[in-house]
Design brief:
Low-confidence stretches: none
Strand order of the largest sheet: 4-3-2-1-5
Order of helices and strands: HHHHEEEEEH
Number of helices: 5
Largest sheet: 5 strands, antiparallel
Shape: flat
Radius of gyration: 25 Å
Helix content: 40-55%
Distance between the termini: 54 Å
């Protein structure tokens, strides 16, 4: 007796394969894209400054795979190390003040600076993970308190809560009364963010 193929099971295997390969493939693609982008533009920049160093015997621009990426990492590490020195920090502060006083650039720079500092700087904002009763019913949203005092907006005993969107870096800010916010104490803010962005499918650990 000829056995018919189980297409339902084959389709299930196919979906499982996608679930395994998709995150890995996208991660590798993102890393390769950044790697190739930096390696593609840096040799031209270095060649403009040191033309003889980046040319081969035929006069073509020499490209060393991975050199640009490593150089950028080294520059970032050096700047991070020097930022702790008094003189360098004063120079950075002076440059930042110049950018913050320049029309047009001020808005872009200050917004980007606040965004990155909220995630990784000394002024990290997404550390108070909470459950927020935004809609004034028994539905709770996962969020982070970004400002615990809204008196300057004329709202006493209110807080600003950032609610991230699933599968996105975007989100919304809600200003709600403090009594409608519950702190999340059994998991970290990082695990809370992963849970919210993944749409609630990521496992959380205590």
């Amino acid at each position: 007796m000829k056995r018919t193929p189980d297409f339902r099971r084959l389709f299930q295997y196919f979906l499982q394969g996608i679930l395994i390969l998709a995150p890995i493939t996208i991660t590798i693609w993102a890393i390769a894209f950044v790697f190739n982008f930096i390696d593609g533009i840096l040799p031209n920049l270095v060649h403009g400054i040191f033309p003889t160093v980046m040319e081969d015997k035929a006069g073509n621009i020499r490209r060393i795979p991975g050199l640009g990426f490593l150089l950028v990492i080294a520059i970032v590490l050096i700047i991070g190390y020097l930022s702790s020195s008094f003189l360098f920090s004063k120079l950075v502060d002076a440059f930042e003040q110049l950018l913050e006083k320049t029309p047009g650039i001020k808005f872009i720079y200050s917004t980007l600076k606040d965004f990155f500092e909220a995630f990784a700087g000394e002024k990290k904002k997404f550390t108070q993970n909470v459950l927020a009763n935004v809609d004034d019913n028994d539905v709770w949203r996962i969020g982070f308190i970004t400002r615990d005092d809204m008196a300057e907006f004329g709202l006493k005993d209110y807080v600003a809560v950032y609610i991230p969107m699933a599968y996105s870096v975007a989100g919304n800010v809600y200003i709600i009364p403090k009594e409608r916010v519950r702190p999340i104490t059994n998991i970290s803010s990082t695990q809370t963010m992963k849970f919210a962005v993944s749409g609630g499918v990521t496992d959380v650990e205590e």
